[in-house]
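tmp note - Tetraspanin
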Amino acid sequence: MGVEGCTKCIKYMLFFFNFIFWLAGGVVLGVALWLRHDGHTSSLLELKFDGHQAPTTFLNSVHILIAVGAVMMVVGFLGCYGAIQESQCLLGTFFACLVILFACEVAAGIFGFMHKDSISKELITFYDNVYENSVATTLTDQDKKQAATAVLKAFHETLECCGRGISNPFTTLITQGLTDICPKSVSASTTDCHGKIRELFNEKVYLIGIAALIVAIIMIFEMTFSMVLCCGIRNSPVY
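out:
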């Protein structure tokens, strides 16, 4: 015999929430892998110019998400097994893991909210550096000009944009005419890369934020149910 009555109901509710948590870990892992290998982000963040790599803040965050998703799946399995076996030791370990994960998620959420614009700003700075070098070296350094042109083409073709959105007829002429690096379907006057970069990473940040909020709500229920079940097992006459 095991726990009875309401405690038994909580046991199966905890198992259900743990199963959802395990699935959520799989979703987080899948989304993180998708973000890592998404053509738009990976092709931009792997660019190099003049010995400088594109900002890696976003990729580092994605790698952390991959680790978090894997840990969530392990912890979810631990919670499911602990609930079915009615093991105080496993449930206590599960609760401790949840507290640590929840604290890390809150800290990451605060840090991410405070620096939510830094990723796009870093990439825009990298883009501007390449753009300015392509203009400054048009008549002097052909090797550097070709390297800058290749990087700008990657930006423009990936994001379907052209130029920085800054009204300057001279630089617009260079971008559109002399170097021939703009996609034919867009214009520097209508589709600037600054806006496209911000749009790209804002969409990713909101997606991660929604996933984190859902997981946090599930974790709160799980922590509550695991402690109630653990207390119920301890007070059960069978034990």
